Amino acid sequence: MSLREDILHVSRSLLVKEGFGKMSMRKIAKEVDVSATSIYLHFKNKDELLLALIESSIAHLADILQKQLKDGDDPIQKLEKLADGFIYFALNHPQEYEIIYMVRPEEMPKFPKEKFNQIRKVYELLADIIDEGCQKGVLQVEDPLMSAYTVWAQLHGVASVVISKRLDTRIPVEPFVKQAVDHVIQGFITQKTMV
Amino acid sequence: MSLREDILHVSRSLLVKEGFGKMSMRKIAKEVDVSATSIYLHFKNKDELLLALIESSIAHLADILQKQLKDGDDPIQKLEKLADGFIYFALNHPQEYEIIYMVRPEEMPKFPKEKFNQIRKVYELLADIIDEGCQKGVLQVEDPLMSAYTVWAQLHGVASVVISKRLDTRIPVEPFVKQAVDHVIQGFITQKTMV
Amino acid sequence: MSLREDILHVSRSLLVKEGFGKMSMRKIAKEVDVSATSIYLHFKNKDELLLALIESSIAHLADILQKQLKDGDDPIQKLEKLADGFIYFALNHPQEYEIIYMVRPEEMPKFPKEKFNQIRKVYELLADIIDEGCQKGVLQVEDPLMSAYTVWAQLHGVASVVISKRLDTRIPVEPFVKQAVDHVIQGFITQKTMV
Amino acid sequence: MSLREDILHVSRSLLVKEGFGKMSMRKIAKEVDVSATSIYLHFKNKDELLLALIESSIAHLADILQKQLKDGDDPIQKLEKLADGFIYFALNHPQEYEIIYMVRPEEMPKFPKEKFNQIRKVYELLADIIDEGCQKGVLQVEDPLMSAYTVWAQLHGVASVVISKRLDTRIPVEPFVKQAVDHVIQGFITQKTMV
DNA sequence: TATGAATGAGCCTTCATTCAT
DNA sequence: TATGAATGAAGGCTCATTCAT
């Protein structure tokens, strides 16, 4: 693995483990077993390192979602698969998920907004599918984009509750996720197809 | 206002704005316009200050939810009011909401878990109502506690998306929240009362 | 006990336990269970507190030595008793002993030298006895004051080695002290009476 | 001179002058005329700096004592030379002597005891010589180790009285030391060879 | 591409002391 | 006699970053 990737890998852990404020170039360097100075050969500064981290995480998520979609599927199947993919990514790559959603837009005026907002494409993907469902008559919503955000917000709630370990210990994780995602998707479909 | 309250007030902003790691006693002191030393007359150390912040935020939320409930209401009305109260708190006291839900546990060292988990009482309140609904036959769920977490997780998703400004700028906030909360609650009720 | 004495008592422990540098007015106040401010009602400042500590320790030592001497004793008996008294004080009041000998003259230009040097009277007491022995023909030394310091220096070595716990753990303390003191005194007497 | 050595040099003075508690990294840095941070490039922290100071001082003393011993010497000559070497070191390298013997163990937190106790080898050297004297019949002692400590304790008394300037100003240093050391050694030999 | 040395700024915290009550 | 509030100074230490090599 290249040094650059090593640095990214270690940074990812540290960022999630200690937060952006306490993640330090020195600690990264130490863990990668390289001089602190060397990091600056690959990343201009701490902010740029964080940016790289976010970008790669978003790319990873987008990639996984893309792979969920198959041409033959109808809109509702796509919806379900997208939701599954999203949750799958969150639970199996919690560090990357956290990186995407931990860093708050207003905290980082330093970050080029257009790069950071690549994540919005994900929601637009969702919106497109909902739109397709409306066109095909299997769904009925007023504003596909708003509905996409509605669904996504709920899924995000489910994922973040699990990842940040706020679930009561008496509740088994998998059944909870299954029930919750089901609730989100079926609730949405039912409501929007019934009239 | 007392110095103690000033400190809490300023800390609250800083904590939300910069995270626990970067919120510094000195910054707080400077903003309150006292010596850094003075903070230690009111709070033993940084951790205790954070604890006070969290405790007061949780108390505030609990208070608001309690006030939502009226004896005459049936379980479904209670459910709706509780959801409304939760969202109301999140949107009107975003800093306190963030302190409760967005400050990462990893960033808070040496934190008495039992105090932090007082928040779980809120979910048990929700579970009790769902349980009551089951007893009265207006709801049908297998595990009231898990269902409570399901509902709450989704509401949390809605709140946190708005608070952390992840909503697409083309989407008007209020309608979004209204639709999303409605979706969560109605979806839950519909699903659980049909069959 | 008066507050003043409480403060002295606690200071004594802290001074010996942590050294002058780390002994703090706050810690004293806390241990005495009084406000830090209150100490200043009894002692002008930290230096004066230390001075009081030294003065009382020296007075205590002088008192014990005085009590060792009886009018009927011959010079050699007096010598032996003085040595015993000195060692007794050191081993039974190690805190006070340390206070007297821990604080180094040049470190404290703040302290009125004449007060601090009261301790020298102790050595002059010794010198007087040696002088008396010479007059009576039972001892023969060139310079009684220097001889007094010679004896005292050796006794101090023995005491300080024990107090500061530099003795090998395989060596039993009491026999060691007995042999060492005996060595100092008998060596001195033998040497000075022979020839 | 290297920065590391400069730091050690300055630390040595400060440690002896102010004690470990009041010796500060910042003061050292200021005197060496570097940033405080730079010290941490050469020593992990304050404790490690102290450790280096002690280790080098002990090594220096051990070196000087070793050089005093010649193969041809008989045990009594060795004893005398060792005593001379010890006093020589104390009076000519008072700072190092103080670091070894006067810095109070309580002021040195978290200190690896085995390293600190390397100094005990010095006393075992002494004990070996006394033992050798016994074997050759020129000395008669019950416990060579205890006798070694007895001799050393008295020499230490002499050295420390001089170094810490507790000698009466009317007493000339050199004759005092000569008489005192002579007293210790001759007293010991006489006592132990007579019977 | 890699590093060791260096630093100014900042961190949390403790200190001795003062002042108004 | 006693205190709570306040503070400037200092403490040990870590940080992101630069520079010469």
Task: Give a short overview.
Four copies of one chain form a homotetramer. Chain A has 195 residues and is an all-alpha fold.
List the helices and strands and how they pair.
Four copies of one chain form a homotetramer.
Chain A: H1 3-22, H2 25-32, H3 36-42, H4 46-68, H5 75-92, H6 94-102, H7 113-116, H8 120-135, H9 144-163, H10 173-194
Chain A binds a DNA duplex (21 and 21 nucleotides) through helix 3.
Report on this model:
- The structure is a homotetramer of 195-residue chains.
- Chain A is mostly helical and 195 residues long.
- Chain A folds into 2 domains: 1-44, Homeodomain-like (Arc Repressor Mutant, subunit A, Orthogonal Bundle); 54-194, Tetracycline Repressor, domain 2 (Orthogonal Bundle), CATH 1.10.357.
- Chain A has helices at 3-22, 25-32, 36-42, 46-68, 75-92, 94-102, 113-116, 120-135, 144-163, 173-194.
- In chain A, α4 crosses α6 and α8 crosses α9.
- The first copy, chain A, is elongated, with a radius of gyration of 19 Å.
- The model of chain A has no long low-confidence stretch (mean pLDDT 89).
- Chains in contact: A-B, C-D.
- Chains A and B meet through α1, α9 and α10 of A and α1, α9 and α10 of B.
- Chain A binds a DNA duplex (21 and 21 nucleotides) through residues 3, 24-26, 34-38, 40-42, 45-46.
